[in-house]
Amino acid sequence: MDYQFSRNVPVSDEDPVGNILKVAGDPNIISFAGGLPAPELFPVEELKQVTDAVYDESGRQALQYSIANGDPELRDQIAKRMNKQGITCDTDNIIITTGSQQSIDLTAKCFINPGDTVIVEQPTYLCALDVFRSYGAHLVGVEMDDDGMKMDALEAAVQANPNTKFIYTIPSFQNPTGRTMPADRRQKMIDIADKYNVMILEDDPYGAIRFAGEDVAPVKTFEHEERVIYMSTFSKILAPGLRIGWVVAEKKLIKKFTLMKQTVDVHSDNLTQHIIAKYMATYNIDDHIAKIKQVYRKREGIMMDAIQEYFPENVHYSHPEGGLFIWVEVPGNINTQDLFNTCIANNVAFVPGEPFYADKVIPGTFRLNYSNMAEDQIKVGIQRLGKAIEETMNE
Ligand code: PMP
């Protein structure tokens, strides 16, 4: 059959990142390529217990169809958490989604007409780029430094693209760089958005996993008008297989999102929503997050010490205070694919930086993950990686 796909479907079947993850999945390879949370931290026993309780107490209701904006109990629990973080909201400001990936898709679905500009960090979360592209967005990348998106470059980008629909930002422990935008930049981002009347899409899956330094309030807490669509997820603070996230935004926008979500999946899995609501009512999720932070702090520390010991002097890398990732920039225009191949030959892997860039690619960059790696393997892997970088730089 010669399929006549819509314009939303990519022409190529190429899946470069999938291929890398496949190669990196070889058990002989120490892989820093994935972005997975540590499965040994999933609260399996607690989830099992609250699942039983849900079946016993409200099984028939949990297994029934439900409303598209999500279980009221769960929205209530999330609203309480959000208010504690300074985001003033009630349950009608919240819609439950099938993970942040769906929140990004829903936002794109509601706002992007082909040709509309979406401004993104350069580099950024590549699956968000894929979503925006699938709706025909014109992507404009904004240069970052160690403190995230540069605000003068952001203003220039918004000014140059009057059809900008929104700025997509991951302000805390960004994927892929691990960078965090300080409060003054968050304030400035709001000022720019106000001045040019654009929205901000704040994607915050990692903000709760701060293991060093001081908390920085979400961008949404700086707004004067309700122009920030805030989204987060249980993927990194509980378990990604649950596939539950949420959006906080103005009530009239949540109504539109609800209508649009109905057309996609009617509502997110109702049983899972009940399970998470019960978990949050029974346990203090912050106690669980504290355990995650402790483990990730240790792994990040081991990786950072090894990087300092084994990477060549002039290699630049981020120093994350939370989240899952470190970003590495090797100077001298090196070919990241060559470096990747050398690494695979030496049984270590990372994700090359190229796919994370919307337009202008900076060569010699790559992402390392430390959350899902046995501690004794981190040092060995970084030692191999350091050697491979040296070899590739000297070629
Ligand atoms: N946004 C970012 C920045 C992410 O890194 C991820 C997942 N790695 C997502 C969204 C999607 O998260 P979820 O599992 O909630 O769909």
From TrEMBL:
It holds the Pfam family Aminotran_1_2. SUPFAM superfamilies: PLP-dependent transferases. GO terms for molecular function: pyridoxal phosphate binding; transaminase activity. Its cofactor is pyridoxal 5'-phosphate. InterPro entries: Aminotransferase_I/II_large (IPR004839), Class-I_PLP-dep_aminotransf (IPR050859), PyrdxlP-dep_Trfase (IPR015424), PyrdxlP-dep_Trfase_major (IPR015421), PyrdxlP-dep_Trfase_small (IPR015422). GO terms for biological process: alpha-amino acid metabolic process. Residues 47-385 form the Aminotransferase class I/classII large domain. CDD domains: AAT_like. It comes from the Bacteria. Keywords: Aminotransferase, Pyridoxal phosphate, Transferase. Belongs to the class-I pyridoxal-phosphate-dependent aminotransferase family. Homodimer. This is 2-aminoadipate transaminase.
